[in-house]
Amino acid sequence: xxxxxxxxxAELVEHLVRTRIAGDVATPRENNLSHYRKLAxxxxxxxxxxxxxxxxxxxxxxxxxxxxxxGVNDDPEYRYGQDTIDPELTVDGLERMAxxxxxxxxxxxxxxxxxxxxxxxxxxxxxxASALRAAGCEIVVxxxxxxxxxxxxxxxxxxxxxxxxxxxxHTHSGEPMKAILTAMEREGRPLPDxxxxxxxxxxxxxxxGVDSVGYADCxxxxxxxxxxxxxxxxxxxxxxxxxxxxxYDPMTAYLLSEAGLS
Length: 262
Prior knowledge:
By secondary structure, this protein is α/β, with parallel strands linked by helices. 42% of the residues lie in helices and 18% in strands.
């Protein structure tokens, strides 16, 4: 049964495991390792708008970060089967993110929301944007007419997204965020004080020098590396597309409560 209201930490941990947002997640081990290897081999599709140079060319170093910050199995010989996200690390990340949201609210900062995974996380971002607006923050409106090679950069329910063929599009790319920030600079507008996002939207913002927090799955190591290096302030580990987006509601309620926004 869904949790009503704001869960306790223990209740949220149990919910994350039950809904497979964390715990034994759907992403298989072989997919995780394949992505870690591709990042280490400089496949920019897996860099999420970051500039990693040659600092992460050993996939075992990538695995070590993911074991520490996400809770995947740390055994390099474990190649196939179930992999995991530690729900305690998920909640730890939510609490760190809540601290940055609280700072944004206290300073009535300009905040930009974006998602490369609208099928899972759009409403998490929308609800967070609504709470920050109620607290006096300016939710950044993106410039009109922006495009990338993948499609149109649009804003829907206060959240920047990529639209392609009349469909909200899943993307790892940092190009949509690059388009937004470049257009804002060209127009003489101040950049956001904070970006709350995921995928390349969060990665490129952090690389560009904007405070950035976000969410990432266990097969998407770039943002966890960025947090380890200090380029991204917070990365919350979770399965970013479970069977129902409503499963994220208790998580969002907990985040907003911890931030003093509910």
